[in-house]
Amino acid sequence: MREIEKLLEHIITRVSINLRKPYFDVAPYVRNLVPVDSHALYYAFYALTPNHPLYFSFKHSSLAGTYFLGKCEVDHSILYKSDIRGDELKAKGSTLEFDGIKVTLYDDEIIRIKDSMLVKTLVHANSHNPESLEIFRIINTVALHYSNIHGTTMEGCLLMPFATVDLSMCHDCVFGEFSYVQAGDLSHEKIEKGRIWVRAEGAFEFNYRFPDGVVDKYISLTPGSKPKGELIDFCESRKEDFIPIYSSVIPELGVEVPESAFVSPYAVVKGNCKVGNNVLVSQRAYIESSSLGDGANAQESCYIVNSTYDGMNVTAHGGKVINAHLGRKVFTGFNSFVRGKADAKITVGKECIIMPHTIIDAVEPITIPERNLVWGYITKQADLEANSLSLDEVAKIKGQFRLGNMSFDGLGSAFVKAFQNRIEHILEVNGAYCDCDDTKGHAQETQAISYNILQPYPEGALKGLCPTVTISPLVP
Amino acid sequence: MREIEKLLEHIITRVSINLRKPYFDVAPYVRNLVPVDSHALYYAFYALTPNHPLYFSFKHSSLAGTYFLGKCEVDHSILYKSDIRGDELKAKGSTLEFDGIKVTLYDDEIIRIKDSMLVKTLVHANSHNPESLEIFRIINTVALHYSNIHGTTMEGCLLMPFATVDLSMCHDCVFGEFSYVQAGDLSHEKIEKGRIWVRAEGAFEFNYRFPDGVVDKYISLTPGSKPKGELIDFCESRKEDFIPIYSSVIPELGVEVPESAFVSPYAVVKGNCKVGNNVLVSQRAYIESSSLGDGANAQESCYIVNSTYDGMNVTAHGGKVINAHLGRKVFTGFNSFVRGKADAKITVGKECIIMPHTIIDAVEPITIPERNLVWGYITKQADLEANSLSLDEVAKIKGQFRLGNMSFDGLGSAFVKAFQNRIEHILEVNGAYCDCDDTKGHAQETQAISYNILQPYPEGALKGLCPTVTISPLVP
């Protein structure tokens, strides 16, 4: 048995101990999921900039195809084609306030991944766990294809493919395929596949469930198999375009980039594309024949194809926008699938919020009026009736409200406000509003970047695992 | 002042302290030699194989374009486009005998480079220093373009461009341009440019000096300038061919390679080339329109152009062979320049030994009979008279002997035997005789190799320096 197979069994054991309640047998989902040899094929790359505190430590782990930025420790883990983004880790000495209690960090925050397996997972660290300020931890956790661990610490969790856990703290939970959860402190919960759940304690709660059969059509995973469905097909069919990029030490960009914008050399940019000022295109984003207006951003694992963005558009991690025209400040949430066709274009009016994990898979042209909240499953114009509401109407809701498969409880105004604040925050930290030194964001801070490339043992018992590596700052 | 400039001044100070006697002002040779920004342009790469013990530690150093294999520590040093090859480091527990004294290594041998600057230098560690078995050290040393530090520990030395120090121990010495020294224990010596000096205490001594003006034509360095001359022109004019190779993470080979042979993906192979069984082509070798017969090897920084090797040919580090036909087992020594022309080909009979640092720059066809020792400066057939001797004649020498600029003292038979043994040793360790598991050499041991790529800080005060990195084996 190779060491990497032993490591996988070790991780299965650790996660299984946590997932006794709710009982979930994780083993059949992860055994044989990634062919053992694949772990030896790809390199890890860690980004080095003068603007992000630096510390890496990898021990007894496989890191194939994984990207790192910021302070990070990985131990006894398998990270496969994942993104570990620590560009929003908190700095030593920062003071935060939680429920009126002020607390100061005694050290720089660090991402610690231990006894875990992440497959094509995005980890973005702006932790919302006040109980562990210095350590952003992912422990005893399995996260599968295209899942997002976003501002969420994890212990003993399983994320099925395309699940997103956002701004939470989770302990011993299972998140079903394509579920989206932003619900604070979660313990021993099992989230059904395709559930969209946004909760702010004491303010509001949003719930949506996809109609029967819909999620399976787009993504499903049965034990012993690879994940299947139209979302997987969509991503897999574009996989080849990344190969030349990952074969270069410093890939060349196929597009003109204004000085204030940043297009990662590890993004695919093909066809005739335009990139405006203050645009951010992250690594592993895929842009084809599209125009990104000023301040737009395309985050990790998002796809923008044959589309036009008027500007200040956020496409969150894993968002997909095809044959669409998005007005100014349209927000496309995590893993949303907005797929128009050449003869069935999608037009989205300005300032619309497309909720995370929304599927708009057009069979006819669809036009969404400006300033609407959009969720759920939409294939025709008429579906908007039960899957959207103007932001003004949402803001008027007080108490319980139902529309189609969506239910809401609480203050609509707080919900809208929370979303809008967050979008503004994202635009700001990504550098969309940059006009001078004071308002720099990720688009500007990551311009001076170099990538260090770490390859695993190529043969032998340790094949696919990395040697023990520590990288720390040069202190003159 | 950037940190890398401070580091250069620090190294100058350290080397200057050593070089008080013979007094040599190293500063004007190294200041401004490499543009500061160049250190940020290139990446270091360290090779990872299952067959070579692994340990790397880099501290406060610049490593641009440098290759590493084996256990290595670098501290407060500037390594620029150099090769640090630790594939012949001794293992813990090995027992060696020196002058009848048996000594056992208590630890794996490690290369330690400290307070030194190496520019386009080859370091190959098969140390012949019995006084420091666990540490192969290069300390307070400056080595310039295309110099070779071969099996030689160094403290307080300066190697001018194309100097080679071979199988020695050196303390506070200066080696002039294109000098070659293999002379055991050296202290406070100044070796004139173009001196070829081979000495085995109590057995023989070989000396050669190039005629006036010859070395300057091929290589010269004046303070404040870059090195000049035909050797530099030759290398520089082929520099571009390496660019696509260093731009790829895993460069593709442009030649068919038999299973028993190894061609480094970081070698240039262009035109129509043939590679025989058990051939070894190292990184930074350059092969163009040439045929390498079975068991031939092309070591670091060697160039083989429009030439045919019949087999079992050694081309040592920095050897250059152009428009030539080399019979079986012809040995081409370090930095030798064997340049035929399309209408002035060079034919070398089997088992000839072309001494290190020999220049054969043909203006007419030249044919060297088999089993000859060749040295010095040759441009015409007639020059062979004073610059070669059959091995049988050499073996007959006892006592003093002179021919042209060459002088010999001692036992010719011991000299020939020593050379032949060494060639056999090189062929053996390079895997030229491989036929089964027992006789594997570098060609076979380095086949399963991955390269880790380390980039420096891209901007800011630390630009061009690397973060602190430690890589150690994964211990299951």
UniProtKB/TrEMBL annotation, chains A, B:
One of its GO terms (molecular function) is transferase activity. InterPro entries: Hexapep_loop (IPR040730), Trimer_LpxA-like_sf (IPR011004). This is Transferase hexapeptide repeat containing protein. It comes from Alkalidesulfovibrio alkalitolerans DSM 16529. Transmembrane segments: none annotated. The keyword Cell wall biogenesis/degradation does not apply. Keywords: Transferase.
